[in-house]
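User: Hey, my collaborator sent me this sequence without any context and asked if I could get a structure. I don't really work with proteins. Can you help?
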Amino acid sequence: MDIVSSSLTAISLLWTPLEACCFYSEKLEEIARTLGYEIEQLTSKETDVKAEISSGIVNQRKKLRSEIQLWLINVEKLVAEVKQMETEIEKCMKGCFPNYLSRYRLGKQMVKGIDHVRELHAKGVFTNGLFIDSFQDSGRILPTTGLLGDRTFNRVSKAIWKVLTDTNTSMIGVHGMGGVGKTSIMMHIYNQLIKCKIFDLVIWVNVSKTLNVEKLQLDIADATNLELSEQENVIWRSTRLLEHLQGKKFILVLDDMWHKFSLEEVGIPQPSIDNGCKFVFVTSLMEVCRGMETEKEIKVDLLTKNEAWDLFTTKSGPIQSDEIEPIAKAVCENCGRLPLAIITVGRAMRKINDKRLWKNALEEIKTARAEIVGMEDDVFTRLKFSYLHLKDDHIKSCFLYCALYPEDHKIDVAELIEYWMAEELITEVGDREKEFNKSYTVLGTLKDACLLEDVGSDHVKMHDLVRDMAIRIAREGPRLINKSGMKLNRLARELTENVERVSVMDNNISILPDYPNCQKLSTLLLQRNPLSENLPDSFFAHMKRLKVLDLSKTGIRSLPQSVSTLYSLRALLLSFSKLKEIPSLTMLKDLRVLDLSHSLLRKLPDDVDKLKTAQIEGIHNNFW
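Assistant: No problem. I've predicted the 3D structure and written it out in structure-token form, which is a compact way to encode the shape of the chain:
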């Protein structure tokens, strides 16, 4: 190749036209080989460029530079010209006698072609890249609706913005119960982040309910204009993703998170003060925040009462009737200040002006919320995810047990834990202190999942819709009947053969049936009922599996002899009752808690000392 180049230089400087003609004729094959080599180098370069273009143009936000388009056009033209030359060379070489004039013309043309090919190949080094900067838009604007509750939104937004602008905080958790508006708030903040251009990249990814690392990698890549192949393995994708994000200041919002994951496994650079990157995890589970080692957690609370009403009327339309307004406010109140429920019910009642329809809606939302259009699919399904993601069946059972309490009831934590332990829902059997510790851990898990909420230091409560969801789930499994706080005067139909847990606390029941057949019953909660002084003698005769019996704050003065046959009983709660005497309890070998505090009892049975100390730990009375 060098001989041809040096010879051509000599031709241009020293040789006569005749000598040049002889040279082109004699060296034609060598010149053709040089041209073939150079065009091969150019087409190889063209192939690489097209492959890179194909990779980048998959995402429509990448735009090819004009100079690249022009270069490709010129390459295509030049390749076509060279092919034409090669065709003419073949014809020229076929004759027995060389045509020196044709050889001269072709040789000279090919030499110019070599120069053009080399020049075009040199221009194929694109120092500015093939595309106009694909990150000129830091992110993709998300469609949003109006915000839910100005004061609540402003308070939460202000807290989130404060953390986002804090250079010392990189990992942020935004949490709250399902349907409270976490996603809506973060979508508005996300769009503002794009407009502010604080970050090179603003990334939003919706994480699937069942965490899939491969899908997460592909979604992040798609949001940042990186093409990853599904055929590549997880490690290779993580390497490419890491290289792609390295050096960029980005914020990644991961919405609807239910599981922790490894940043390293996915291929995401660890956010730090130095790189200025930030993560926001939007979740219903505080456990996820802990698992991702967030530095700051912000809880999205329920709307205020006024905000709830404003949102409700926005969806239902103005309430113009003075007769309907108090009913509509009661309907709204029964949505529990949860935005998703308010929106769903408000839409179902939109532009309804019939007072009877509003009264029916109020009755439905009190007794059968799921019957309201959209409640099952939009509200209960979302709330149920928090329940489904509880770690094991024991924790799920503890949660469902809370559904035995009345609506909006402040649940005494100590009482609830006694129930759990007596029902053997806590697995640390045999050590009361360990069981208490485990119980408080379970309680914390339920609060972290927004299934229970604190009310002071010693009480918790269930949101009305969470309670409805729990009752619906409980009905699918072991038979649970909750008629607490429903102004019942009698107890009969509730005590059936297959029922396992019954709560009729806080009613007006005074008389109990004589001979209920409840062979599977394990919990019976009768507290705060004006029961008659003497219970039927045979009331407990067919309750051999009963573990929890609560007769606190009732009018009973004595227990029937049949209580002595409750061989499985583990908790007998009689506090604040009018009890004056109890039968022998020595047959209750499994009894763990006997609560006689603040009763009228002044004397215990003579054989009470036969109860083992371990079995009566936690006993209270008025004279010990």
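In plain terms: The two ends are 111 Å apart (CA to CA). You can pass these tokens on to your collaborator as they are.
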